[in-house]
Design goal:
The complex is a heterodimer of chains A (77) and B (700). Chain A has 2 helices and 6 strands; from the N terminus they run E-E-H-E-E-E-H-E. Chain A has 77 residues and is mostly beta strands. Chain A has one domain: Ferrous iron transport protein A (FeoA) (SH3 type barrels, Roll). In chain A, strands 1-6-2-3-4-5 form a 6-stranded antiparallel sheet. In chain A, strand 3 and strand 4 form a beta hairpin. The two termini of chain A are 13 Å apart. By secondary structure, chain B is of the alpha/beta class. Among the domains of chain B are: 163 residues, Rossmann fold, CATH 3.40.50.300; 94 residues, Helix Hairpins (Orthogonal Bundle), CATH 1.10.287. Chain B is 64% helix and 8% strand. Chain B contains 31 helices and 10 strands. In chain B, the strands form 2 sheets. Chain B has a 7-stranded mixed sheet, sandwiched between helices. A two-stranded antiparallel ribbon of chain B has the order 7-9. In chain B, strand 3 and strand 4 form a beta hairpin. Classes of the chains: A mainly beta (77), B alpha/beta (700).
Chain lengths: 77, 700
């Protein structure tokens, strides 16, 4: 199972499932990070602790914990 | 009598709501607070034909599932206040995400206008927007605007009036049949209660309940229909969750709204997302894994240089104006108590505070620019990894660094932290960042006791250890007080935008007004109290004795010495002196005499007062930190251990009254206020005592 935190910079993927608990889950949903949404990794910090992802034309910063709570699959599947 | 139309301006953060408000012509802007909370409330008043239009700008809100206190304020307003029209502002660039929230607003079924802002950016990319199709699909009027180019903004007003005259349009947005069926079923039960008689209200409540909205649940909790609603809900949750194979009905509704929004955007906006926009190019540098941090630190360094170097000029001018005015008034007004209160008590104290206004304005201008351009969220992104180790989050960096300038704006800067727990922890440790006003005290003590060392290094060590201590305390607070709480960090990184100078100017003007108001009221009263305590009671006999002695001597130096002695003796006999002697036992274990004790206590009014109080108490008269006499006097009267203990006390104990007042204004909970008032002083004393005893053991 691939998570956002497993992706590399510039890699794209599709959201399969969000394991985060409320209220974080609700926050992700309201920012457009929902099942089926396409995401692209813009950047992460050197230690891969903080992530910057692009989805629906919106950039969202996440921590490693949140990034690893989002399951993704390849855009070709 | 004019017809009043009440409009609620609603939108997600970063959609340009405030620039729309600023672009409205002939509008009158009022700024205040929402009742009971320190969330800024902007109201716009407009007159058009026979209509008085009152628009309330609600805080940015991502969804009705409120998360931050500001979002809760917006939600409470939407659910409970009386208004006629919802003006929903969305960013055309991120339409589908914005529309997820618009769907929730449409559930309310009030008259709604969709304002599609920043259409110029779509046009620039060569894209097109099918306005009438959006109107048809959503069933509400749509206005295309560009606040930047002032396009379409005044159309909003005519649309509001037009909409006001006609009844609310039929709802056009429906969810999946399986959901709608449950909504109708639940609404039917709700209509049994007199509270939800109308079709619209019952439908909205039913959707909110299916969305697992806790506020909606509380609203039905005490009604006779509660059991019936509760049982129906439980059944529906189970059924829907298995039918859609989802964990929660909240997710089902979110997915529904996202799908509808996405399709709507696909059908109505045609734009190529070009790669390598300016925003992307900037981010390649500004959040570069290696370059990002040094660039950010450089910006912060530049901001503080500007704040203190540039702020210094007006600061000196304001200081001069105040001291000239008080000396003029001292001679001009008849001698007496009023004269003394004004020229020795109030004016110098208010002046000492107003002097900081330029610094505060420059700092806020810088912070505003960082926020408006979108760079602030990058800074938070960069700092998050480091601050996380101490239980803080990235955005806390800005208030923490501002704390080195002045704690007052730093408390206000903490507003950028939306999570209440992050905010309270950050505010509780802000005092550890030594503010500019504490510098003179450090300079005085360092020159007295570290003459053989490089004073710059010692000063740097003091500042760094304060900051480090603050981070450690933050970590302790996080583990002890918020044990097991998650530290979520999900934050939008808006595209870089050119700031609106009108909006920034407006914001600075409001800050100035509020600051001056506080300086003129609260601080003036506090200064009066301190002056009174240090001037009374007067021992007339002693004053006469000294005055006679002063008359007799011809030596000018001796005259001055006698005057200083009189001043010191009077102070020792004053109420403040009595207070000092009364509290001296508290500080005795640190080796402080009553003078140091009074200076520490006086420092609570403003840190600048510590040096001037020491000057008076050691009878130097008009001392400044540079005064050689005071330095040697301090060295004679205070031992090394106590001096170190004093530095630690100054570094940690409660900040000045102005800062404490700001904290109280920002934090309404009494429990936190009391904790905040007590704990730094306890920590300061314990640490100072520990170091004092250790130094004693080491033979100092």
């Amino acid at each position: 199972m691939k998570r956002i935190s497993d992706l590399e910079i510039d890699e794209e993927a599709v959201v399969v499932k969000i394991y985060a608990k409320e209220p974080i889950k609700g926050r992700l949903l309201s920012m457009g990070i929902v099942k089926g949404a396409k995401v692209k990794i813009i950047a992460h910090t050197l230690a891969r602790q903080t992530w910057d992802i692009l989805s629906n034309n919106t950039k969202v910063a996440l921590r490693e914990e949140e990034a690893s709570s989002i399951e993704v699959k390849s855009i070709y599947e | 009598m004019n017809d009043e139309i009440k409009v609620a301006i609603v939108g997600q953060p970063n959609v340009g709501k405030s620039s729309i408000i600023n672009a409205l012509s002939n509008a009158e802007l009022h700024v205040g607070n929402f009742s009971g909370v320190t969330v800024e409330k902007k109201e716009v008043f407009l007159k058009r034909d026979i209509y008085d239009i009152k628009m309330t700008d609600l805080p940015g809100i991502y969804a009705l599932n409120a998360y931050t206190p500001e979002e809760q304020v917006a939600k409470d307003f939407l659910l409970n206040e009386d208004y006629d029209i919802i003006l929903n502002v969305v960013d055309a660039n991120t339409l589908s995400r914005n529309l997820i929230f618009t769907m929730q607003l449409l559930d309310i079924h009030k008259k709604t206008i969709l304002v599609l802002n920043m259409v110029d950016e779509i046009a620039k990319k060569g894209g097109s927007i099918d306005k009438s199709k959006i109107e048809k699909l959503l069933g509400i009027p749509v206005i295309l605007t560009s606040a930047k180019e002032k396009r379409g903004v005044d159309e909003i007003i005519s649309e509001i009036i037009k909409l006001h005259k006609i009844p609310v349009a039929k709802n056009k947005v429906f969810y999946n049949q399986k959901i709608e069926q449950r909504v109708e079923e639940l609404a039917k039960i709700l209509r049994k209660s007199p509270h939800f008689q109308s079709h619209d209200v019952s439908r909205f409540m039913a959707i909110r309940l299916l969305d697992r909205d806790e506020d909606a649940y509380k609203m039905i909790h005490d009604l006779p229909i509660f059991i019936e609603v509760h049982n129906a809900l439980e059944k529906m949750y189970k059924e829907l969750e298995s039918e859609f194979d989802e964990e929660s009905t909240t997710d089902i509704l979110a997915n529904e709204r996202a799908a509808i929004s996405y399709n709507l955007q696909m059908e109505t906006i045609d734009v190529d997302e070009e790669e390598g926009s300016l925003s992307e190019k900037l981010d390649n540098f500004l959040i570069h894994p290696i370059l990002g941090l040094p660039i950010f630190l450089f910006f912060m360094w530049a901001l503080f240089q500007l704040t203190f170097v540039l702020g210094n000029y007006p600061m000196n001018i304001i200081g001069a104006i105040f001291s000239e005015t008080s000396s003029f008034l001292a001679d001009f007004l008849p001698k007496g108590i009023f004269n003394s209160v004004l020229t020795e008590g109030i004016l110098p104290a208010v002046g000492a505070i107003v002097m900081f206004l330029p610094n505060i304005l420059i700092l806020f201008l810088g912070l505003n620019l960082l926020e408006q351009t979108g760079y602030m969220s990058r800074a938070a992104y960069l700092m998050d990894g480091f601050l996380k180790r101490f239980g803080l989050q990235g955005k806390a960096f800005v208030p923490l660094v501002s704390g080195f300038g002045c704690t007052v704006p730093a408390y206000m800067a903490a507003r950028t932290l939306k999570n209440p727990k992050d905010r309270i922890i950050t505010m509780l440790v802000l005092g550890f960042m030594s503010c500019g006003a504490r510098l003179p005290i450090y300079v005085l003590l360092v020159s007295a006791f570290f003459a053989n060392h490089n004073p710059g290094n010692v000063l740097f060590l003091i500042y760094i250890s304060g900051a480090f201590l603050g981070l450690v305390v933050a970590k302790i607070l996080r583990t002890v007080l918020f044990k097991g709480e998650p530290e979520p960090f999900v934050m939008e990184m808006p595209p870089y935008r050119f700031p609106s100078f009108k909006a920034i100017g407006m914001d600075l003007w409001i800050k100035t007004k509020m600051f001056l108001k506080k300086a003129g009221t609260f601080i003036a009263v506090a200064a009066m109290a301190i002056w009174f305590l240090s001037s009374y009671p007067v021992n007339n006999k002693m004053v006469q004795n000294y005055n006679a002695k002063i008359e007799q001597t011809t030596n000018i130096g001796k005259k001055q010495n006698l005057k200083n002695e009189l001043k010191a003796k009077s102070l020792e006999d004053s109420y403040l002196g009595s207070v000092g002697k009364f509290i001296q036992p508290v500080f005795a274990p640190l080796g402080f005499d009553w003078r140091l004790s009074v200076a520490v206590i006086a420092g609570l009014s403003a840190k600048e007062v510590v040096v001037s109080t020491l000057g008076t108490l050691y009878a130097m008269g008009g001392a400044s930190e540079k005064s050689k006499g005071l330095i040697s006097k301090i060295r004679q009267n205070v031992d090394f251990k106590s001096a170190i203990a004093l530095i630690i006390i100054i570094m940690i104990y409660s900040p000045c009254l102005a800062a404490m007042g700001t904290f109280y204004a920002e934090v309404p909970q009494w429990a936190w206020r009391i904790f905040y008032t007590i704990y730094p002083n306890v920590v300061a004393w314990l640490l100072a005592f520990g170091v004092y005893k250790t130094l004693a053991l080491m033979g100092y």
